[in-house]
Amino acid sequence: MIQTDGCVRDYEVCPRLVPADREAAVRVRPRAEHGRFDRAAKLHVKLFPVSGLCSTGKYADDPEPTLQWRLEEDGSLLIRAFFAGEQEFTLLVTAEEFGHPQGAKSPRKEMRFGLYSLRPDLYGRVPLRGDLHMHSNRSDGEAAPEAMAAQGRKIGLDFLAVTDHHQYRPSLQCIAALKDVPTGLLLFSGEEVQLPGTPVHILNFGGDFSVNEWVDQHPDAYRQEVAALLRAHPVVRNDMEAFPVGAADWTFRKIREVNGVSVFCHCFWQREHYMLDEAVTREILARREFDAMEAVSGHGIVNWWSNNLQSVLASEESGGGEKFSIVGTSDSHSLDGPNEFGCTCTFAFPERAEHGSILDALRNGWCVAAEEQTGEIPRFYGAFRLVRYAAFLRKHWFPRHDELCHAEGTLLQEVFAGRPEMLPAVKLVADAVRAYRESLVKPFNEAR
């Protein structure tokens, strides 16, 4: 769980996101009495565009000149300014003699609040964190599917799928287990597709039915269709086996048919050698049949070089997320590994917090890969614009989101342990997460 700093803990910023190249009003409201701004003898308020672009149309080191501010009766701070371009802004509030009239005072206290202005195509999109790849005890994992879901919510995930090896049904069991639970966690169907004659691992995320099961039921048709695809789109290199490439392309197309998102998995995963020949990897990348590529996946500490290679290759080949999406996944097999569950994930920006919208975002590049190993700094991979925005959210918005999700996930664990009386509490916290997300763009006069 992300550590929360004082400005995130003690104050509510509403809205935190504003439209670019427009004037907007923002309120910074204290969440407790000790944070009231009118406890200061004097306030100095400045707004700095982090990229340097001011309302004058020029880049400068000076603060934004259009800033106006006033104190409200409830001790909150109301500002109004023109927010130029798409960028982060730092609202710097310096309070002199800040504290209790008869108690301890800080001679000079500086508080920094992050704001972000977004262009129309990104403004209003919903920031969500998810994991597309994990394994339960229905294959080679350790925990039950519903336990994976509860723990996922506890660490701040908004969506996930159980993707067991060669099995689709565990993801449906997970969905069924939470069917009547009023949680904000969105669950998807999924499986890790591993087909005969190929070492390629592929995720079917959100598909309507199982590709693994279809091949099990139609083995001859599978091989005939792969052969036909290779005849139509032959592999020209003679230093590699063609069938794995054809099987991968067939799988990507099949996942598209079943309305899923296809993810090319851990292509540089290594034991004594790469589990997938590099020539096959590069041919699959060149043919571009998949929707997304794992830039970072689980086992980052014991197999850190794999993630290094995957992230660089994904960045080079994706064209900044324009040719295919870049995602991060945990590939978790346990809830307890310090650098497994939750260490890598995907930040997605769908138009709505709904299944179909999330799938569209993952297909169309509205996502970045995120990695945060235990004790390490966060890292993001993908298009620069989205990476910069994701880093802002990680710093200023997700800390409180994760605290709320931690409470919801803990309650889900109690429900699955046989305490259904906790269901109303689950709904209360899920509603609080939803309200907090909505406050990102809610006008200040509509916030509580």
What general form does the structure show?
globular
Predict the CATH topology of the largest domain: TIM Barrel
Ends: how far apart?
26 Å
Largest sheet: 6 strands, mixed
How much strand?
A: 15-25%
List keywords for this structure.
12 helices; TIM Barrel; globular; alpha/beta; 448 residues; Immunoglobulin-like; 6-stranded mixed beta sheet; 24% strand; 2 domains; 5-stranded mixed beta sheet
Question: What is the structure about, briefly put?
Answer:
This protein has 448 residues and is α/β, with parallel strands linked by helices.
Q: Which secondary structure elements does this structure contain, and how are they paired or packed?
A:
Blueprint: H1 6-10, E1 11-14, E2 17-19, E3 22-30, E4 42-49, E5 68-71, E6 77-83, E7 87-99, E8 105-118, E9 128-131, H2 145-154, E10 159-161, H3 169-177, E11 186-188, E12 190-193, E13 202-205, H4 211-217, H5 219-232, H6 243-257, E14 261-264, H7 278-287, E15 292-296, H8 304-318, E16 325-328, E17 344-348, H9 355-363, E18 367-371, E19 379-381, H10 384-396, H11 398-416, H12 423-438
Parallel strand pairs: 2-8, 9-10, 10-11, 14-15, 15-16
Antiparallel strand pairs: 1-3, 3-6, 4-7, 5-6, 7-8, 9-17, 12-13, 13-14, 17-18, 18-19
Task: Give an overview in words.
By secondary structure, this protein is α/β, with parallel strands linked by helices. It folds into 2 domains: 6-121, Immunoglobulins (Immunoglobulin-like, Sandwich); 128-410, Metal-dependent hydrolases (TIM Barrel, Alpha-Beta Barrel). It has helices spanning 6-10, 145-154, 169-177, 211-217, 219-232, 243-257, 278-287, 304-318, 355-363, 384-396, 398-416, 423-438; strands at residues 11-14, 17-19, 22-30, 42-49, 68-71, 77-83, 87-99, 105-118, 128-131, 159-161, 186-188, 190-193, 202-205, 261-264, 292-296, 325-328, 344-348, 367-371, 379-381. The strands form 4 sheets. It has a 6-stranded mixed beta sheet with strand order 11-10-9-17-18-19, with helices on both faces. Strands 12-13-14-15-16 form a 5-stranded mixed beta sheet. The protein has a 4-stranded antiparallel beta sheet with strand order 1-3-6-5. Helix 2 runs antiparallel to helix 11 and helix 11 (398-416) packs antiparallel against helix 12 (423-438). The model has no long low-confidence stretch (mean pLDDT 93).
